[in-house]
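Thread: "does anyone have the structure for this chain?"

Original post by V.I.:
We have the sequence but no experimental structure in hand. Need at least a predicted one for the grant figures.
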Amino acid sequence: MDKQLQFSGLWAVILGGSSGFGYATVQKLASHGMNIVVLYRETSAAAKKTVAALAKIADENPVTILPYNLNVLDTASRQNFIADFNAPDKTGKVKLLLHSVARGNLKPLVAAKGATGDQSLLTAEDIQMTSYAMANSLLDWARDLLQAGLFHADARVIGLTSEGAHKHWDAYAAVAIAKASLQSLITYMAVEFAPYGLKTNLIQAGITNTAALQKIPGSAKLVEIAETRNPLQRMTQPGDVANVIYLLCTDEAAWINGSHIHVDGGEHCR
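Reply from O.Q.:
Generated one for you, tokens below.
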């Protein structure tokens, strides 16, 4: 079989696919024949660029790419999308649900000692919003796709985490809490969704210089550390992560379920 067509007729649903890991995954899976739904939330101007970029990928590969500029955290938007995607003119099953949502509050827990003036501190509401965006929303999407009968009989669900989930990064507490929750959620989904053919895994990417990373206070220091700490002497790239997502979608990866997979060139070993 031509490897370029190995996923012909199958679909990926990527939550947060306009940049970073999600966009790299679009490029990778399209090159292997997988049709892709890309969901993202952007301004009209930014969305036009995203639609053009996705159309270019579709033109270069034998695939269909459907862009949806909507709020993936909104229940009505999610249900409307599923109703639209489940229409009779759409064929094929969802092989991959990738959760690549990067939306959270970046604030400290407490004011710096000796600081003067008002400081924006993390609230319980901030933690709740971030946890839903970067963790628990995956469960709603997986359950609704399953209920609609849209998953392939041997489907994959993949979440993304980072070292910041268990190591202090400045102003990263809300995201870290969300990622820790995601890790537990992945474990439970791996067990409870398995009877339906779903394999659920978590990828921990190395420090990657994405737009999401650049929003973190002190991100330049994280980049500097990663460049010297990695045993392979370079930073993780979005394409490195997309390559592993591709591998997890293959038939040979059908027995990988409930795993926490480091994709960082060994960075976590130091």
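V.I.: this helps a lot. The mean pLDDT is 92.
O.Q.: and The chain has one domain: 3-110+118-264.
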